[in-house]
Amino acid sequence: MQLHPYLGFDGQAREALEFYQSCLGGTLDLMTVADSPVAAHFRPDQQTRILHGSLTSGALTLNASDMTEDVGRTHSVTLALTSHDPEHARQVFDALAQGGTVTHPLSPSFWGGTFGQLTDRYGHHWMMNVLPHAQQNGQG
């Protein structure tokens, strides 16, 4: 079993997924309403919206859509990234923070790793955890 976060947007899914791709790398696959077999069921103003989008980068798969009915609710989910590479983690954290708000700077934590937290420009919450060397080898 795998968990793949599915983010909801109100017309910003393409922009957001392209932003996340610039931060995380990977392959982006987008399907608009107009490109789908169900296009006739939607209004003309919805045809350019993203029906389903997927960003795949290594073991990460992040899905998104403009067709989520609960957009605008409080984001109660935090997307947690774990890294073993401090430099790469810093690059990703800083990239995700562009236009957003850092709520906890990426800094050493009491458990020996590095931790940071932010809310991105789309209102989604992210955590970055960089594990100490001993933990990445299963020793911690």
Automatic annotation (TrEMBL):
SUPFAM superfamilies per record: Glyoxalase/Bleomycin resistance protein/Dihydroxybiphenyl dioxygenase
Full protein name: VOC family protein
Source species: Deinococcus xianganensis
Domain Glyoxalase/fosfomycin resistance/dioxygenase: 8-127
Domain of life: Bacteria
Pfam families according to UniProt: Glyoxalase
